[in-house]
Amino acid sequence: MNGRALLAAAAAAMLVALPAADGAAQRSKAAAPRDWTQTIARTPEGGFRMGNPNAPVKLVEYLSFACPHCAEFHRESGTALFQNHVRPGRVSIEYRNILINAADIPATVLARCAGGRAYFNMGHELLGSQAQWVGGMRSLTEAQRGQLRDQPPTIMSQRLAPMLGLNRIAARYGLTAAAQRACLSNMANFDQLETISSQANSQYGITGTPTFLINGRVINDTNVWAGIEPLLRGG
Prior knowledge:
- About 60% of the residues lie in helices and about 10% in strands.
- By secondary structure, it is of the alpha+beta class.
- Helix 4 packs antiparallel against helix 5.
C-alpha cells in the first residue's frame, strides 16, 4: 500500500472511530450523578426545600436565624448534611422559619425575599454571624429604640435592618435597596411567617427551635446533629 492509500485508510478508520468515542463521552456524561443541592423550591407550607422532591428521607427543620441552638446545629452539621445526604438525592432538607425576637423579623423576611439558593446562602450567613447582628440589639441607643417602639412590623423592620447591618448582608444576596424596601413594606411577608408558626404549633405542637421532622414525624428526643444524622442514614 502506497503512502497516499495508507493516509486515506487511516483517515477512514479515524472517521469511523469518532462517533463511537463521542457516544462513549455522552454516555459518561449522562452517567454523572445529579447534584440535588442545585434543586430548590418553595413549598406549599411556606418553607424552602433543597434536594430531591422524591427523596426517601424528607427532613424539615423549624428554625430561627436568631436561635443559638440553630446556629450550633448548623456548625455541627457543616457540609455533611448537604454533601453526604442531600446532594446524592437520598435526603431533602426544608427550612421553615419561626421568629423568636425582634432582630429575627427583618433578617428572616429579607432572606425569604432573596429566595431560592440565595435564601439558603443568606440564611447560613445569618446563622454564622448571629452574634454580630443579634448582638447589635444591645448597642442600640435609646433614641434608636424609640424609633422602633409601638411600630407595625413593616416600619419597625425597615428601621431596624440598617441598625443591625442586615441591609448590607441582604445586598450581598441580590436585594437592592429598593428591593429591600419593597420586601419589608409588604405585610403579606410577615403574615406568612405568622401562619408558619401557627401551623407548627397547631399541627405538631412545636414551640421551640430547632425542631425536626423526618418524613412527617416530629423528632422529640434530639435536636443536635449527632442525634439527627443516624436517623437520616436509617430512614
